[in-house]
Design a protein that fits this description.
alpha+beta; 10 strands; elongated; 276 residues
Length: 276
Amino acid sequence: MAKPSSRLELIDYCKRQLGAPVLQINIADEQAEDIVDTALQFYQEWHYDGIEKMYLKHQITEADETRFTESNETSSTPDPDTATWENRKNFIEIPEHVLGISKVFGVSSNWVRNDLFGMSNQYFLMDMFSFSSGFAFGKFDLTNYYMIKQYFETIDMVVNTGQLVQFRFNKRQDRLFIDIDAKRVTKDNYLLIECDRALDPDEFTQVYNDSFLKRYTTALMKRQWGQNLIKYNNVQLPGGLTLNGRQIWEDGNKEVMELEADMPSKYTVPPMDMIG
């Protein structure tokens, strides 16, 4: 099909792009499956259409609370002059399809935003006259207030790290480490994360029809085809045809490298700069 909507249809599409059924594509079924897995992993980790921004919640369990309060990992050495270092298992299990976490909510006690007597609320109360008078003259402008709020956010981020949620996440661990006071992690409370989740191609079948994924999978198959035939270089076939496995590999590898080089500049969401 011209618009593949499954793994098998994507494999058949790529083989047709390489010449099948006119040519025999010397790739095993297992190799084709591995190639699709590799292409999907690269697509989900780099392409902006391979992920979706999600908010996931987790109800803190008794096991989570116990893990945060116990210091049950100790690293020591035989040398008596060497200090002993301890660390807690202060992590929450994260689903495998979560690729990145940008924010954590539910365990914060932020003085700038939440405290009635904090800077933000006090500023608003002190400047209430200018806000109310602005309505009367039809010149109400939120620009100054917005800039002040941004300034407070920057102060809060720089000098108030003890109250903010400090967290670490590595997608190869599937663990969200939260470096805060254990008392702020309470059973039955909810933890909310803002994260990037990989699209499931079996649920959202349009992934298989993505233009980049089709070209990238085809290039990977061409390279694998050449790799399988690379020892058969300049072999004469019946009818006068010459089989050149190395040339097929070089062409496929060049296409793969070009597509991977284009990914950061054309298909990846650029990182946001922090502006204070």
